[in-house]
Amino acid sequence: MFQTIGKYTALCGSTLLIAMAAATAQAADGQVEFTGVINDNACTINSESVKKSVDMGQVRIADFANTVGATAGETPFSISLENCSGSTLKNASIKFSGQQAATDATVLGMVGANQVKGLGIQIADARTGDKLPLNTASTDYVLRPQSNTFDFTASYVRLVADTPGADGAPDTRGIGTGTVNALATFDVTYK
């Protein structure tokens, strides 16, 4: 019985010390900001698709017809999603954006110094072959459980035609030679 009272007495003494310390503490104003995101994304972007590099290879100027919009060097690429639940959101669309070409806002323009002139990069939906203009969502893809891969193509696209000279040979070439560097970002919208 004595031990129980002793513990009780010690506990009361500790509580009294804590109460006295709190009474002598200084008060100060402060702020705590909480941030976060709640989303209803049906999938996560596969790590290999987060930052992708597509090698378009080399093409010759002669590979292009002399008309604005002519393409060459079609190169496939894909974007993969994983951990798809599909429980609430059943579809997804993908929208590409980036530096627009000066003469055609629907295609990617070149970025950086010393880039080839007269060309852009055109993206197309591999399902249909239809051009996918920048800043325009693709038609919906049906999401399957777990993993999904969406296929696209990228092509060089002629933006300027050659100007013929008096002898019929090009007087001014619409396409120059040099390096190609374009950068696109993509957004996935779940529905």
From TrEMBL:
It is found in: Fimbrium. GO terms for biological process: cell adhesion involved in single-species biofilm formation. Its main location: other. Residues 33-191 form the Fimbrial-type adhesion domain. It comes from the Bacteria. Keywords: Fimbrium, Signal. Belongs to the fimbrial protein family. This is Type 1 fimbrial protein. It comes from Pseudomonas saxonica. The lineage of its organism: Bacteria, Pseudomonadati, Pseudomonadota, Gammaproteobacteria, Pseudomonadales.
